[in-house]
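lol ok so funny story. i was supposed to be doing the assay writeup but got distracted and ended up predicting the structure for this chain instead. priorities right. anyway since i did it might as well share w the group, maybe its usefull for someone
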Amino acid sequence: MSKIQSENRQLKQRSDFAEGIINTLRDPLVILDTELNVLAANESFFKNFASTGDEVHGRSFFDIYGGIWNQAILKQTLVKTLQENTPFHDYVLQPDVAGHRHKTLLLNGRRIYEQGEETGQILVVIEDITLRRHQEKAMRFQADALNRVNDAVLAIDGEGYLFYWNCRAATLLKIPSDTTDRIRLDDICIKIEGNLPGFSPFLLPNNRGESIVFALKNLTKNSI
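and the output, tada:
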């Protein structure tokens, strides 16, 4: 085998190895050249965006899939990454194309290096955070609702530490709003017994198997 054949074989082996790794990744990703055309993408990208290699390879990233990526700020971000070798993180994109208008995507990208040298290519990883955003919105709504009730509501994790309390609980138990200390259930019980006569804890239903959620109710006529 000649030296050239050996080098070509090694290059193909490295390429196949890299492609194998890329295709095992859960999140969609795409590799762009210096003109921001698509060089490669993984199986997750094709699955999530209902496209094939023939439909995207060699085409401008901004033209594929109905122009889903065709946004001015994203273009500027990618160009800056190419020209200044500046990675970008947590770029939020809300597509304005049919079938994706209610999705929220998170993009991260950086220049690709091979054996310590720049290749002039960009790797872009795409994460669908739609469900996460909906969950965060629901949690904010729940927290706001719990802050409006008169009972103190607290939640304890599986290790016995407080991980949630509403405004009423913070007031009654004198929990600083900026506290970073982990508060144990034992400490909460001591405060209840010593400082809150007439208050008793009542378990509340919850769908988190490893946590305990309870409310402090004032059983006396006069509330604090």
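The first helix runs from residue 3 to 24. The longest strand covers residues 117-128.
back to the writeup now i swear
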